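SEQUENCE-TO-STRUCTURE ENTRY
===========================
Question of interest: how does this chain fold, as expressed in backbone structure tokens?
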Amino acid sequence: MTTRDITLETIDSTIAGDGMVLLDFWAAWCGPCRSFAPVFDRAAASNTDIVFGKVDTEDQQQLAAAFRITSIPTLMAFRDGILVFSQPGALGQAQLDSLIAGVRALDMDDVRRQVAEQRAAAEAP
């Protein structure tokens, strides 16, 4: 599978629902972004069950701001519509493969329980 260009119009439908989504926030002028791009592309080719999206922060400034992107590249991982990983910096192939394995191994029932607890604590007086 190839990567998808993600825009403000497509972000919600991309990250919602079941499955895993990896988003690469990048810009053409960014050297580390250019070095990470082939790593991301190889992972996309090897993991056809995952959605690999690329967000051009220059073209999609409103989307980058909504996700509070302050450094690029930034990689985000969503599983079943829940943000489970966010980190700036270029990853090597082994690091990205390890991240993918970790996200696959998550107990999503436990993740949903933790999210519900965090929301309840935030709403408490």
Remarks:
- The chain has one domain: 4-123.
